[in-house]
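Title: Comparing notes on inverse folding

I've been comparing how different people in this forum approach sequence design from structure. To keep things fair, I'm posting one structure and asking everyone to reply with a full sequence. Here's the target:
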């Protein structure tokens, strides 16, 4: 019903399945948030929760910052594949559909992105260590 109501916002170049999936995903996220509020887990004072407390060290923060920097240095196609498959958990086929490339291209870019990232992180470790 949402897709029909918002039919004028559909871009035929995007693909109907992706557009409907996005609508369903947003509905699901909204429902999860509503449930949290209904169960009393919606708004909690910051001083009453442990979720906002960070148990990370300065070293963890530095490693994370370096990783994000090295990830940003990767070619766009390689970084996108690494994020979709490695971080978001999409399958090779799903990532290929999202990026509109062949599945073999996704596999190749992922392999190469992992190699480049490992090389760049090793270089960073040698410089700092």
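Reply #1:
Here's my take.
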């Amino acid at each position: 019903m949402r897709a029909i109501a918002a039919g004028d916002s559909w871009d035929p170049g995007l693909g109907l399945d992706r557009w409907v999936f996005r609508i369903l995903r947003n509905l699901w996220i909204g429902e999860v948030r509503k449930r949290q509020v209904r169960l009393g887990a919606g708004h909690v004072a910051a001083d009453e929760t442990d979720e906002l407390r960070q148990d990370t060290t300065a070293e963890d923060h530095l490693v994370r910052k370096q990783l994000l920097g090295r990830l940003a240095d990767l070619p766009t196609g390689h970084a996108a594949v690494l994020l979709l498959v490695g971080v978001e958990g999409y399958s090779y086929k799903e990532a290929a559909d999202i990026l509109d490339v062949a599945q073999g291209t996704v596999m190749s870019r992922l392999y190469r992105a992992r190699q480049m990232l490992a090389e760049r992180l090793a270089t960073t470790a040698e410089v700092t260590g």
